[in-house]
């Protein structure tokens, strides 16, 4: 099955002429002649960007998501490709309405027109995993009905299995394979994709994020209608707004774009450090903006989580980075075990400084992100830095956020915008506010535990005495058995001597 899927990927790439991207170097250009010979019949009249987008669509959701991430990185792509890949954010070809209605019939046990007062069979948006239809409940509320693509789970399982095989091969054949942990990264990605295929889980994600930002002027999250949700269907309140990628239209509506860009950075850091729970698929197709400049989050299939250890580690790293305290950054990496324990802190500090200094005090439009990534990769390789699979989704989201900020406001200083928020958060965590909050959180536990301390101490003492008594009895028995064996040996020896004397 995996071999067949690999063959299909290679054939699809050749059919759409993607060898133009991968076999363009002079050293391997001869291979293109062979591909052209084998696929002489293929029509290549469309522009390269269109062919790339159509190839990713035909290969399925994992490849579409890859294209979505790339589409936010206009600093790393030619404009024609970035513009075309942006269509993958919400304009993936829909599946037939009849199949959507069949999914609803299977979920509810009756037709959609019996469940809803109105249901539009023409989807308003279509993505790699599901598509969205507009409907009205019989109680009058306008809702968005998200329907899972039929059979999508089998396609994803096949692709994940193939990726796992390729990752295993990478670990075996590449010297950096074990350090980069590709199989663990694929496993983390697979876990999030599996969550995305369960609409009830996505609805729960939406509900949690809505609670986290309840009353926030920065971010609005739709309400979930649980009575209408099922494994293949999610129903939430209809949200109006302008797609965030339409910057000119937002300006025409009076939205302050620079303020909007800064708000996006604050929303990201609030999710990560305050809540440890963040939207991990923040490409422009999943974000609307109201006329008041408030973000509207959509599509909650992929969410990331961080524990307290990861949050504190990241906050210290970010804050030290923003303060240009590279020694602290190096020491934090060493303390966390992410680099070899025999690494010299001063050498690692110097390497980090060489990567980071050129990007400070610069607006996003002047940062060559591709070069920064290359130097970071070279540094991590030199010092044997291990990939942390639990942070892969965070890194992906940070790429999306940075790319989105670049589209909204190329003059945005990402570091200066984030630094005050992180300083305030660290103060709340480590200062007197953090101590007070921790005390409030722990007070119910201590209030329950303190009255039980005498009984628990008595039990511990009794248990300790019993253990010592049992150990003493066991020691006496062992000594007694040893003494008995010694006496038996002496008795045997004496008996042998007496018998020998008698016989002599």
TrEMBL record:
**Which SUPFAM superfamilies does this one have?**
Protein kinase-like (PK-like)
The region annotated as signal peptide is none
* Gene3D superfamilies, alphabetized: Transferase(Phosphotransferase) domain 1
**Which UniProt keywords are given for this protein, alphabetically ordered?**
ATP-binding, Cell inner membrane, Cell membrane, Kinase, Membrane, Nucleotide-binding, Transferase, Transmembrane, Transmembrane helix, Ubiquinone, Ubiquinone biosynthesis
Q: Where are the transmembrane segments?
A: 486-503
| Pfam families the UniProt entry points to | ABC1
Q: What biological processes does GO assign it?
A: ubiquinone biosynthetic process
Which superkingdom is the protein from?
Bacteria
Pathway in which the depicted protein is active: Cofactor biosynthesis; ubiquinone biosynthesis [regulation]
Domain ABC1 atypical kinase-like, residue spans? 87-332
The molecular function terms of the Gene Ontology recorded here are: ATP binding; kinase activity
Q: Which family does it belong to?
A: Belongs to the protein kinase superfamily. ADCK protein kinase family.
PANTHER family membership? CHAPERONE-ACTIVITY OF BC1 COMPLEX CABC1 -RELATED, PROTEIN ACTIVITY OF BC1 COMPLEX KINASE 7, CHLOROPLASTIC
Could you tell me what this protein is called?
A: Ubiquinone biosynthesis regulatory protein kinase UbiB
| Organism per entry | Parasulfuritortus cantonensis
Lineage start = Bacteria, Pseudomonadati, Pseudomonadota, Betaproteobacteria, Nitrosomonadales
């Amino acid at each position: 099955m995996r071999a067949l899927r690999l063959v299909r990927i290679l054939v699809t790439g050749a059919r759409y002429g993607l060898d133009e991207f991968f076999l363009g170097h002079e050293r391997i250009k001869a291979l293109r002649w062979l591909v052209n010979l084998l696929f002489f019949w293929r029509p290549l009249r469309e522009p390269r960007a269109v062919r790339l987008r159509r190839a990713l669509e035909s290969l399925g959701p994992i490849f579409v998501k890859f294209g979505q991430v790339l589409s936010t990185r206009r600093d790393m792509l030619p404009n024609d490709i970035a513009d075309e890949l942006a269509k993958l954010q919400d304009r993936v070809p829909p599946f037939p309405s009849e199949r959507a209605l069949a999914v609803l019939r299977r979920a509810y046990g009756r037709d959609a027109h019996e469940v809803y007062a109105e249901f539009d069979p023409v989807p308003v948006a279509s993505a790699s995993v599901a598509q969205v239809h507009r409907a009205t409940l019989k109680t009058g509320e306008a809702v968005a009905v998200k329907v899972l693509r039929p059979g999508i789970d089998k396609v994803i399982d096949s692709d994940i299995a193939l990726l796992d095989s390729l990752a295993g091969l990478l670990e075996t054949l590449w010297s950096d394979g074990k350090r980069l942990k590709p199989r663990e990264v694929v496993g983390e990605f697979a876990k999030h994709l599996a969550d995305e295929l369960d609409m009830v889980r996505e609805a729960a994600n939406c509900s949690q994020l809505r609670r986290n930002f309840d009353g926030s002027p920065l971010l609005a999250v739709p309400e979930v209608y649980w009575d209408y949700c099922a494994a293949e269907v999610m129903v939430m309140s209809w949200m109006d707004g302008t797609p965030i990628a339409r910057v000119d239209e937002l300006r025409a509506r009076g939205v302050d774009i620079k303020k909007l860009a800064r708000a996006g950075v604050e929303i990201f850091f609030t999710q990560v450090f305050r809540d440890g729970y963040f939207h991990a698929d923040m490409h422009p197709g999943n974000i609307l903006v109201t006329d008041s400049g408030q973000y509207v989050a959509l599509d909650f299939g992929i969410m990331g989580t961080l524990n307290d250890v990861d949050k504190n580690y990241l906050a210290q790293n970010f804050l030290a980075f923003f303060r240009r305290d590279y020694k602290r950054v190096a020491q934090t990496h060493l303390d966390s075990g992410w680099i070899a324990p025999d690494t010299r802190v001063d050498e690692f500090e110097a390497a980090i400084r060489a990567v980071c200094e050129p990007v400070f005090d610069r607006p996003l439009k002047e940062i060559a992100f591709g070069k920064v990534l290359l130097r970071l990769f070279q540094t991590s390789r030199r010092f044997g830095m291990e990939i942390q699979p639990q942070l892969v989704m965070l890194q992906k989201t940070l790429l999306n956020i940075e790319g989105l900020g670049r589209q909204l406001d190329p003059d945005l200083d990402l570091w200066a915008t984030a630094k005050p928020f992180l300083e305030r958060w660290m103060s709340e965590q480590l200062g007197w506010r953090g101590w007070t909050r921790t005390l409030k959180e722990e007070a119910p536990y201590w209030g329950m535990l303190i009255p039980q301390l005498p009984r628990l101490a008595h039990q511990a003492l009794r248990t300790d005495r019993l253990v010592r008594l049992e150990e003493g009895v066991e020691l006496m028995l062992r000594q007694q058995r040893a003494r008995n064996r010694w006496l038996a040996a002496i008795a045997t020896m004496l008996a042998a001597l007496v018998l020998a004397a008698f016989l002599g």
